[in-house]
Amino acid sequence: MTAPETTAAPTPSPAPTAAALALGDDALVLSHRLGEWAGHAPVLEEEVALANIALDLLGQARLLLSMAGDEDDLAYLREERAFRNLQLVEQENGDFAHTIVRQLYFSTYQHLLYAELAAGAGPFAPLAAKAVKEVAYHRDHAEQWTLRLGDGTEESHERTRRACEALWRFTGEMFQPVEGVDVDWKGMEAAWLTSVGEVLRRATLTVPEGPRTGAWAAGAGRQGLHTESFGRMLAEMQHLHRSHPGASW
Amino acid sequence: MATAAAHQTVSTQTYGAQGAAGDTAAYESAFDAAVAADERIEPRDWMPDAYRATLVRQIAQHAHSEIIGMQPEANWITRAPSLRRKAILMAKVQDEAGHGLYLYSAAETLGTGRDELLDKLHSGRQKYSSIFNYPTLTWADVGAIGWLVDGAAITNQVPLCRCSYGPYARAMVRICKEESFHQRQGYELLLALSKGTPEQHAMAQDAVDRWWWPSLMMFGPPDDESAHSAQSMAWKIKRHSNDELRQRFVDICVPQAESLGLTLPDPDLRWDEERGHHDFGPIDWTEFREVLKGNGPCNEQRITQRRRAHEEGAWVREAAAAYAAKHTGETGATRA
Questions:
Q1: N or C end of chain A: which has fewer CB within 10 A?
Q2: Per-residue pLDDT of chain A (249 residues; tens, 9 = 90+)
Q3: What is the rounded distance in angstroms from the CA atom of residue A22 to the CA atom of residue A65?
């Protein structure tokens, strides 16, 4: 909150660069996954909603990646092992319940994170102040659908239950501290567990009991260790850009 | 909110003495007078059954085109070559879903339902624009669709902002604003390619070569073969003939192609001093009819994807309905 800090030129130190990549990659990759829904959503309103969320995330990704370098070089020319996103956001869309539970887990986390960043004075405060409003909408959207699906029909309940279980093991990674992101990770994790637990309870679902991090691959996206489908996602995303080296679009 | 006395009378009569056969002639003449005075017909106004049916058909087809039209462009969302272009494309596809929603709402004011209309789309009883049965094979196609397809749509749709049916006209005002924006973005995308590397330029030219003729077909059959034209013009649903609009579009595109540094694939295209218009070569109406009949390159794929999205989403819609039924009326009471 001191004057010299808030007026300092935004020269990215190594830590904010790594942090910008982590947060930017989360937004970039989840945006891409949501973009895959275009033309496939269960109702037209969700065509609009999912594209809207994808666009918000892409906007955040562009700002964050630009703090770390050239947004297109970073998005299109890095290999899989150099991406720093959470494994949660790279998970395939699956059915609508799977997508919604992924949204619930991530948007709850992102909302808590951005609210804290927005309240602070670090390099991400201005961005978080804007993004936290978008993310509040994403969280609301995910919560409303979790309620509808969990407390809807037998089939929707079962699909949602399965999605909650399947994605649970990727949730621990969200609270592994990211260098350069100055927040209360332990407190955020507790708040996340309370919030998600409450939504799942209201949706007549139960909080999964399995581990929230695993051995080897589960929970290492921040270190550049990803799950198998991520490579195919990048192949599709980067193909055209890489086919025309140096071209402008 | 029509103002002519005759028109207001019709509205009153419709609700006052509905069904009295002797009044039909009076309603008809009041309707004709309102249309002649360039007034807007509103949902509660009396209208001829055939006028209602024509509008339902046209608005539904327009709505379906927005929804099916998402597919050829969404095909490139995951491969867009820069984050800026990706954001523009996502926003555009989102707008199209929104346009579909406006248009279904406009159609619903005529006494039909969205579910019924979607059902007709899925079963092939209602059509969508033939243009969306062509494939997007390269990134440049996204630009060609913006420039040519949206350009043709705007040429067709701007006159609809003055269409005699109020809800449709108002939907078109909103839609045309967004479409113009998309069209400029498409043009700008092609310009970037045309001025880019030789490979990018070739990609742009190839896309224009493939999309030019299908875009001209978007204006419909020639005037002497257009079944609905005369009646639609008399009702002021339509303001210009197919051939007039097609000519207007060609005249707009020729200088734009020049400034893009791209050519249009028509050896007969040249300025006709006497007419004050560009002459252009013959359209392959056989291809047009084949595409309309369902034999275009992507007809099967487009409708299959749409049906699949709808069928695979059924459990989601059922869940939402079941949840709403369980929780009706409790929001006010239980809100903390």
A1: N
A2: 444 444 455 555 566 899 999 999 999 999 999 999 999 999 999 999 999 999 999 999 999 999 999 999 999 999 999 999 999 999 999 999 999 999 999 999 999 999 999 999 999 999 999 999 999 999 999 999 999 999 999 999 999 999 999 999 999 999 999 999 999 999 999 999 999 999 999 999 999 998 888 655 556 899 999 999 999 999 999 999 999 999 999
A3: 9
Q: What is the ipTM of this complex?
A: 0.93
Out of B81, B312, B323, closest to residue A148 by CB: B323
DSSP per-residue letters across B156-189: HHGGGGG-SBHHHHHHHHHHHHHHHHHHHHHHHH
Of A41, A237, A247, which has the smallest distance from its Cβ to B313's Cβ?
A41
CB count, 10 Å around CB of A131?
A: 26
Decide if B336 touches A, using CB distance below 8 A: no
**Between A39, A41, A58, which is nearest B86 by CB?**
A58
Please, what is the Cα angle at A92 between A90 and A97, to 5 degrees?
Answer: 115
The neighbouring-strand residues paired with A158 are none
Whole-prediction pTM? 0.92
- Give the contacts of B296 (CB within 8 A, at least 6 positions apart): B130, B133, B134, B290
Query: What gap in Å lies between CA B207 and CA B213, rounded to an integer?
Result: 11
CB pairs under 8 A between A and B: 143
Query: How far is B61 from B52, CA to CA, in rounded Å?
Result: 14
Q: Verify whether the Cβ–Cβ distance A156 to B97 is below 8 Å.
A: no
Could you tell me the two tokens for A209?
Answer: 């009991």
